[in-house]
TrEMBL record, chain A:
Highest classification ranks of the organism: Eukaryota, Rhodophyta, Bangiophyceae, Galdieriales, Galdieriaceae
One Pfam family of this chain: EAP30
Gene Ontology CC entries for this record: ESCRT II complex; late endosome membrane
Top-rank taxon: Eukaryota
Main location: cytoplasm
Record function comment: Component of the ESCRT-II complex (endosomal sorting complex required for transport II), which is required for multivesicular body (MVB) formation and sorting of endosomal cargo proteins into MVBs.
Keyword terms: Coiled coil, Cytoplasm, Endosome, Protein transport, Transport
Quaternary structure and partners: Component of the endosomal sorting complex required for transport II (ESCRT-II).
Protein name: Vacuolar protein-sorting-associated protein 36
Keyword check for Cytoplasm: yes
Any single GO BP term: protein transport to vacuole involved in ubiquitin-dependent protein catabolic process via the multivesicular body sorting pathway
Species per Swiss-Prot/TrEMBL record: Galdieria partita
Cellular localisation: Cytoplasm; Endosome
From TrEMBL, chain B:
Name of the protein in its database record: Vacuolar protein sorting-associated protein
SUPFAM superfamilies the record matches: Winged helix' DNA-binding domain
Family: Belongs to the SNF8 family.
GO terms classed as biological process: protein transport to vacuole involved in ubiquitin-dependent protein catabolic process via the multivesicular body sorting pathway
Annotated Gene3D superfamilies: 6.10.140.180, Winged helix-like DNA-binding domain superfamily/Winged helix DNA-binding domain
Example of a GO cellular component annotation carried by this entry: ESCRT II complex
Organism, as annotated: Galdieria partita
Origin superkingdom: Eukaryota
InterPro entries: ESCRT-2_cplx_Snf8, Snf8/Vps36, WH-like_DNA-bd_sf, WH_DNA-bd_sf
Amino acid sequence: MDTMFNKRNLRDSSLEGMQFKLSTIISRETHEKLDNPECFLSAEQLNLLDRSRGLYLRYSVSNISHVCLDKRKEKKLFSRLASIVRIQLSNGEHILLGFRHDSDQSVFIQKLENYLRQHRQKKANDTNQTPSKGVGVAGIMQSRKEQVQQGEEQLHNAFKDLESLMSQVKGLVELAQKYQGSLLESKVGEDMKEVVEFRNMAASLGVDNPVTRAQLGGHGDEFHRQLAMEVYRTIEKPLRKNGGVMNLIDVYCWVIRARTTTELISPDDLLAACEMFGRLHVPIHLSILESGVIILEAGFMNDDEIAKKIFELVQSKTSLNAVEYASVANIPLLRAVSRLEFCEQKGLICRDEFEENIRFFPNLYF
Amino acid sequence: MLRGKALGLAGLRREQQVREAIDYIASSFRKELYESLQKQLDIFRENLVLFARKYRKKIENEPEFRAQFHRLCVSVGVDPLVSKKGFWEEILGIGDFYYELAVKISEICIATRGINGGLILLDEIKRLLDNHNEGKLTRRSSKRALLRNSYQISRDDIERAVQRIQVLGKAYSIVSFGNIRYIRSVPGELSHDHSCVLATAKKQGFTTESKLIASLKWSKERVVLALKGLLEMELAWIDDQGTECLYWFPSLYYPIDD
């Protein structure tokens, strides 16, 4: 990883808990800059911390094999620097630190080398006291303990990083809300560029804004049309086998499993595709029931036609109750009840309640 | 500056100038906010990439870390699964995970529906998913196999997947009987259970929970849900005077050819 220190003088440059003030760190993997990072040593680790973004990187001091001056100047970024210090890690990676002033760099190397020397001495002393470190049951227990400790430390670090990331998100969310507030106050028109861009930003962050949901998916009409036809082809047989009714989640499962490409479609895409059935004259009808359940029903029938059919049925049988209708039409009981009630609302049938037994008769009165 | 009352046309003009000045300040303030928002968003994006580099594997493989991640997101007011084009999906890749999980869950539900009437224990689903992950090969190509095999699923994940899939309607829901949680994949509106109960009770005009369990061989919870549905439809009367609750069905007393 390349780390570059820029012009700022190194202050407070003693080690073990004290801090170096740097101005930029660039990560080689991603070529990114961190502004105003700090560098300090603590608990046998070299830390590079960017407070404003809450991000930090650590390297265990025991992994540092040596520190020296580096002669490289090939990259454009290095040309402004007086010297480059190279910290070699034992796993083959290295860190490059760039300094503008020679004095800073020599101070840094001196301090770090001192620290490394002390650290190695301490380690040597420790190992001398446990001569049979890797041997026997005691050795196994020791290494297990170290493993557990390391694991805990890693987890601890992981949670810390997670929290710092989240606090950043929180700040961002608050800023976004502030901005939204000021947008509302100034009554900017809905279609203005700013508003649209703000919505996109909120959507990519995942801030829950009901307006953004409508614009998600990002796929055009054409995609949905093709998807609708695909859904129809896939779902035709299973729908018939299931008595002509399927809930939308089962449909989603079928469609995904039938697709040979690996691209998952999102549920929102499926919803949009099914809403197009009417326009495309597909004989499947999407309906949303009162409780929030969404189903696909086979057949061109819309609600009015169903109501008419019920009316004819009631007429032919003089009267009908929910249980009879359910068995005749072979639909679930709750559906039968809701359909009968719908028909009643339309004024085609009326009910007669007698001792909790509700029967429906043709409406001859209105 | 207004001196005393705003007089006549000059006064109106002055007012207007003041208003325009305020509007101008407001809009430039807004623009500043917008720019800083953009900038912060970019910074955040970079940080998220760094974070993902370190922790993406961890999120994928450790359910506890994943759950903590989600909890924090909720507390901050952000939903990482909302959009396929959002940062979270793009950089951390967690969107697909939950959709794929939801599809697996619904496969299991569809397959077991015949036996349990759409009511399945959450732990049972977890058990089946774990078994599946442990190496049964499917006939699907190995492209999807990568997604399937390496994740460890927790109860929290299952519940989140169900929640996520409810954007397609509330057909799948999580019901609790005491402390035990079930996934219900056949909502009342689509269930033929009620008609079955009525058919069983036809001979005597009434029934009890234990009778239904014995004759239909359903689980207790399934029977309870069916009876509850019938009560709500006002097709059943409940009689709790005896040792066990009796359920009466008036609609069975008056057959059509009376």
